[in-house]
Fold this sequence. Notes:
The complex is a heterodimer. Chain A has helices at residues 3-43, 45-56, 96-107, 111-119, 133-142, 164-167, 180-183, 185-188, 228-244, 281-288, 294-302, 305-308, 318-328, 363-369, 372-393, 420-427, 436-447, 483-498, 559-580; strands spanning 57-62, 69-70, 76-88, 125-132, 147-156, 193-198, 211-214, 221-224, 249-256, 262-268, 336-339, 342-345, 348-351, 359-362, 458-462, 469-471, 513-520, 529-537, 544-551. In chain A, strands 2, 3, 4, 5, 8, 15 and 16 form a seven-stranded mixed sheet that branches. In chain A, strands 10-9-19-18-17 form a five-stranded antiparallel sheet, with helices on both faces. A three-stranded antiparallel sheet of chain A has the order 1-6-7. Chain A folds into three domains: 3-43; 59-224, Penicillin-binding protein 2a (Domain 2) (Alpha-Beta Complex), CATH 3.90.1310; 264-270 and 305-462 and 471-580, Beta-lactamase, CATH 3.40.710. In chain A, 40% of the residues lie in helices and 20% in strands. Chain A is of the alpha+beta class. By secondary structure, chain B is mainly alpha-helical. Chain B has one domain (3-367). Chain B is 68% helix and 3% strand. The termini of chain B are close together. The interface between A and B is large, with 43 and 54 residues.
Amino acid sequence: MSVKNSAGRRNMTIQKRKTFIVCVLSIAALMALGVRVGYLMIMCSEHYTELAQMLHERERDIKAARGRIIDSTGTVLADNKTVCTISVIHNQIKEPEKVIEALSKELDLTEEYVRKRVEKYSARERIKSNVDKETGDRIRNLDLAGVKVDEDYKRYYPYDELASKVLGFTGADNQGIIGLEVSYEKYLTGKKGQILTLTDARGVELEGMGERRKEPQAGSDLYVSLDINIQKYATQLAKQAYKTKQAAGVSIIVMNVNSGEILAMVDVPEFNLNEPYTFIDEFSAQAAAPSANAQDLLNQMWRNGCINDTYEPGSTFKIITASAGLEEGVVTLEDQFSCSGSILVDDRTIHCHKRGGHGAESFVQATMNSCNPVFITVGLRLGPEKYYKYFTDFGLRQKTGIDLSGEAGTIVHKLENIGNVELATMSFGQSFQITPIRLMTTVAALINGGKMVTPHFGVKAVSEDESVVERFEYPVSEGVVSEETSEKLRYILEQVVENGGGKNGYVEGFRVGGKTATSQTLPRGSGRYIASFLGFAPADEPKVMALAIIDTPQGVYYGGQIAAPVVRQLFENILPYLEEKGYN
Amino acid sequence: MDYVLLAVVLFLAGFGLLMVYSASSYEAGIDFGDSAYYLKRQGFSTVLGFIAMFFVSKINYKVWQRFDVAALLVSVALIFLLLTPLGVTKNGATRWLDLKIGLTLQPAEVAKIGIIIYLASIIQRLEERGKNIIRTPKGVAIIMVPPTIVAGLIYIISDNLSSAIIVMGIAVAMLFVAVPDYKWFVLLGAAAVAGVILVVVIATSGDAEGGTFRMARIRAWLDPEAYSTDRAFQTIQALYAIGSGGIWGKGLGQSMQKRNFLPEAQNDMIFSIICEELGLFGAMTVILLFVVLIWSCMVIANKTSDRFGSLLVVGVMAHYAIQVILNIAVVTNSIPNTGITLPFISYGGSAILFLLSEIGIVLNISKKCK
């Protein structure tokens, strides 16, 4: 063996060992990478899967059903209707001509309109929304590639204009615009769901890869105190008065005196909740005028006069003056007065509505006669500070807190600006303005024994599966007046209906109390009046109260002659009905 | 003949075709209207590769030693041809030669096999001369200068750092095996580690927007989510694919990432699609197959008493090992991103042709083993 060969053989042995080392190092590196792969695929799997899913999925919202609005009889006043949205996905359309033809025919759209959308290169193009379900189903059954029919909810009001200004309506996104739909938005609105579809990086949906759904959560049903029968009847009466008296408007509110629950609230003319943007006849002429501001007119049309507008209550306000006087002890039921037909306050002569005067009369008779000088006298006996204190204590300077938005506040002089003349006019319900609901709420407190309730509609919210029920509670304050004063007041007001100016409010077989009012609107001498009647029953233990206000009636305008009969007819119907229901 | 090696290679090449089809069909359908576009091309190259493998396995490997210098010169010549109008430029890099018969060729792939033949031969010749010339600086220079030049040309002319690294890697592996010493290599290894650390430190300490393109790549490697929309885009998309595979995967053909999220999923990043579709199970199977492949090569190399034959196998083994390790390391973001294909599986005609030819050589050597 040569040296060369032995060295060569030794090197060959080392070479083999080193080859083995290279091999083992390589395999070790591969094993390490195997561990790394395992780490990524087990430990980081969740993280990357989530990120990847976010990247791969395109989401589409599914509208949640809005909670219904249900009255005290269980009648659904606001419901949801299934409608369809038809859209096309450009990339998936296989037979564009067929699609254009079918969609323009089914949806009653022009061919150019549909063609423009079908041929537009976009991820998803909406053709028409609010398509009724039958049409949507028909289109779906045509099975056209690239045409998507998505079901959706639309608010639907089965009774069109019934309680329109109370219920309110919803907008394009199913959100409340006015009325209870706004006040209870939080409860009514549901949680949107989502359809998650897999797409490639270009946003093209992948067929047959399945989709994930996050189910929407329906909103809670709102139960309200409205009673559809009372509401319907009140609406009918209001419409009748509106028509026969050619009035500017007629409002009727029916309220539970002890709880503040409102059974009916009508403010004619009302509008169709299913078409809230269509002008009713009263507004169409104005809306057609070139200078018309459509939104302003719509806001006017939607306005709820019962809570959004103030007026001078007139003689119904004598209830407040009487309460203050009796409570303060400046007058008793038996006090004797004499009415000459006018009274001199400072340097001003204020006339009674009966120019010839009522002559000698007790306080009870003066109320029955609705005698202005007597109430001015009572007001003056109290003096501005006391009168203002009662005005405030009776809640008249505050909003009632009713669960509808846009409640108007009271417009009244500041105490330092109330002289004898202002005080005199305030005593019989003039020179300040309040909302009808404010007047009712205060009178309710005065006759129910001094309990100031919060007028309201909302009773409870019940979730879809009835698992969550929220009963609404409203502030109540006691002791607004003493029980004695309240009792006296009930007596006087029953007398007004039994034997006085409110006798048109009398209902056979029931004890009704009430007060009429005929107030001239500003400016004085315009010949425009507001006639109203506020009645309650039973007179000795009041449960329900109704206020009817006829704005600017033509012809006879006395509250006792035109407004009292409205409440009487209402009571004739609803008092037996409420008794039957065991209503308290 | 080593049938285990043959079986593993057959399986890997077949599996590769399946995965190329799975990874590319969705995009090919959109881009070319033919979901089998890439499959057909790769299928053609693979068939060509198997034919080449078959013939090469019939040729006595000792013949190749006669062409050692020729292999080197051809490799260099082909690289220079890239500068002529025959060079095909894609994505800003000229890496392909147009063969004018509807086919292209990557000179870098030729260079890898060329360098293996050249080095095996020159080392054998140096050992023949004896006197341990291989252990002298002169011997090392004779061995290392040509591959360094070839790697440099590949990097400069075709802007292909990955192939240059692989050529150098093969050369260093063969040198390590051939030279009986350890000391130098340990020192070299230590120096390399220190160098890597230094580069990383420089890359991270510098002003974020400054530095070269490759420095930015290193920063993207360290914090891919911060660069997810630009430099680390591909890496992040690969990680999404790997991570969303889980243990069992989404099933063959079910990858989401191949749907234009991970660009050119059939190329360098195909391993991530394997992970996504076949899960950890599939990924581990692929890694194990490569382990078997490398082990088989080692066994053949060590059973061969002929130094030239043994070194040829070592070169081929080093070639596979470096490429597999670097590819999986890149895909899993274990090292900075550089474009390295996964042998037998990634799409690429020249690569599969020469990888299979190399197997042909190894198979021929395996016949001569005791």
